[in-house]
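W.,

You were right to be curious about this one. When I first looked at the sequence I had no strong expectations either way, so I just let the prediction run and decided to look at it fresh. Below is the sequence, 918 residues in total, followed by the output.
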Amino acid sequence: MSKTVREIAELYTSYFKGKGHTIVPSSSLIPKGDPTLLFTTAGMVQFKPLFTGAVELPYTRAASVQKCVRTTDLEVVGKTERHCTFFEMLGNFSFGDYFKKEAIEYALDFSLNHLHIPKDKIWVTIYLDDDEAKKIWMDQGVPEERIVRLGKKDNFWGPAGDSGACGPCSELYLDRGPEKGGPNCGNNPDCKPGCDCDRYLEYWNLVFNQFNQTVSGELLPLKQTGIDTGSGLERVAMLLQEVDSVYDTDELKSIIRKIEELSGKTYDESTKQSFRVITDHSRSVFFSLGDGIYPDRTGRGYVIRRLIRRASLFARKLGIHEPFLFKLIPTLRDLYSVRYPELKDKAKDIESILKKEEELFLHTLEVGLEELESLLGHLSENQQTVVTGKEGFRLYSTYGFPREMTKELVEDRGFSFDDKGFELELEKDRDLSRASWKGKKVQYLTGLTATPELKTEFLGYTEAKSSAKILYLFVDGKSVTSAKQGEEAVVVLDKTPFYAEGGGQIGDWGYLKKEGFQFQVQDTQKENETFLHLGMILKGTISVGENLEAEIDTSRRQNLANHHSGTHLLNGALRRILGTHVAQKGSIVSSDYLRFDFSHPKALSEEEIISIEKDVNEAVNAKIPVNTEVLDIEAAKKSGALSMFDEKYGNLVRVISMGDKSKEFCGGTHVSNTKEIGYFAIIKEGSPGAGNRRVEAICGDSVIEYFLSEFQTIAAKVETHNLSAKETFGDLKEFGITTVVPAPEDLQNRFAKEGNSTVLFLRKLREDLERELEEKSSALFKAKKKKEQLQFQMNPELVDGLLKKAHSLAKGKVVTEVFSSVDAKSLKDLADSLKAKEPEILCLFGSSDGDVSTLVFMCNKVLNERGIHCGDLLKETLVLLDGKGGGRPDMAQGGGKKPESLQAALEFALELSKKKLG
């Protein structure tokens, strides 16, 4: 029965291909067009539009091996035998083709004749009232005693996300024998699937899609039924290889062997949790980075950062104190590039990104853990059991510990964590800005003058780290001789690689370190010739006169250099395209984006923006060397270098040249060649004040991430639109979006192959899609309104229902009704239908649409002769709605406000009518 993971996957796809299924490659871990999901969590995610009928069916049956990430059970990964955050899911799907009978037949046939699972070991579960599924299983030879009914929690699946296809399901279980039942269930005859013990293990779920769940939770019948099955590849391998854990299957075991080799530790009972966490998380990170999900502070990126940090923490338990996960990438590449060949070429980049992220965290991990130990020790001494939100937030903001990781660490030690308090501290922090540091810098230097001994030698143009001596320390605005752990401080050095904010470029971050001491630099400012390193002492004590190592965050510096050099190219492009009247009025260069203010009398046209963007990207593509010269100021001016007219310059100035594209005075940090900038895209254009314009732009990988996000948003809108059109009209030829929204992997491949030219293509494609979406949505809205009005006017059930509820009076009948968003013409047509069936009826109709109210009163002449005048009746009623209107005795129409008073207004009109028709 034993088979390798690879063999099982190949058997599966081969079997279903033989059953007429199209074998569809795994989609990205970024769900296409589904904003309700962070990650692809199941095989059916990429097929959601096919189940709902939102798109044309390219096939009616399919099968796939889908890579998935789920983090709902993250805290138990490593503790149990089966939980993983990354897994591969085998799935076969039907879209209006076969249903329960064939799905059950295929699952049993594959289990018995291809996986060679003994038939007497297979149990199945069904939904409570699904007698149809029970009969099919019994017809296939599964005895009634091995069929178990379970409720909605276990046997009603879906949807994936907040909406989509869902329905009852039937699951296949393998009986692993009474010895797996433990002391309570080993010989218990009542033990069966649904029990919490390990005897019966589910390995395949067959979902019978019958409903489409809306975001509000409403279950609507699907236009076509479907089949969605899911079988965890690792779990099936565990059963067939007859091992106790998915981590003991062949592929995961090879990762564990590599960890043993790199760590020098043995995988055993005492180390297995650490080995399993590292094995699992390294897979999730490897595949996520491969799909362009990079570590970040929010969203998917935050999840990946959390996985990296959690794995680093468990690596430390194995005695590993340096970057480690990145060393597993070659093993992961060799294992998985057979099924996912695109990962082979991406492995080097994944390795590089992962190593940088590990280094970022390991800077503070050790001192953060020491701080946590100290905190827990203090709480124990004082017989306290709660880590407050304030304490948890300090571990997050100072040491980079994700909230969930801190919570897991403290709960493992028997303490509880104040989640609500943490959220309050986070909210407070959002209200603070880096300006608070800036406000302190003058205070810190009060009384100090620009003397030679206060001059800091700047090494950052050529060095990322250097040794340095402490000249001054400031704590709480006062000069001190020493400072200790936990204190916010300002450190003045004799020399530094840290760039101090200036020329629009924000200050560097990084660390000041020596044995037993670590200082986190959170900003770098400058006063005269003195550089101020502002931040927090993470570990140890330091004194004036001591020597240490100063090291900047090189990844952030590279992003700053990309955006600063991009700013220079932008300035040159603006002058070439708009004219030499363009003069810089201000700029901000951050690691995330650039902002550039310049003199220009009017807003930039779309054509001008595209031309500017194209000019900059051509300069990037040209791979122009960036030249730096230090010149006498007069010589610099004669060279034609641009300068800011209101900037103060010394006798010597630094001139940055990029071929014939740019030449400027500048003291900032730059790339050595324009190719390092990668990509350039303008994301916003506006005005900061009269006579000036402002452009915001991004460079490098930020451009890729920007377009990925933009197209995911558009894809979600397109899917919603097409679903709405399909539900209303069935045929999408007139109302469907015809332009294809690119998938995330398609965008990344395009960037990789075509480079900067992709930016212009994607900008144009995005605009075309948005324009088409707007036009089609407008046309769809009008068509839906027209259809609704037609259905409203010609609805015999509505007419009969209104006649039944009419008020019968001595001289006639009166019907009143309030509708939502129905136009006056439709109300008149409805009244005509009623009058045709009942000549002696007065119709008093109202409709609300937003903050507007509409009234239509109609009757036949027979009621006019009995005293009813619709025009007079309407005028009296409209007083309640602050409205206007009028009309003839037999028909009147008007409009007003106060839709909340519409019902009361019609009741008032009814009372007036009763006086006439009594």
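Here's what jumped out at me. The chain is about 40% helix and 25% strand. And, maybe more interesting for your project: The longest strand covers residues 200-213.

Coffee later to discuss?

I.
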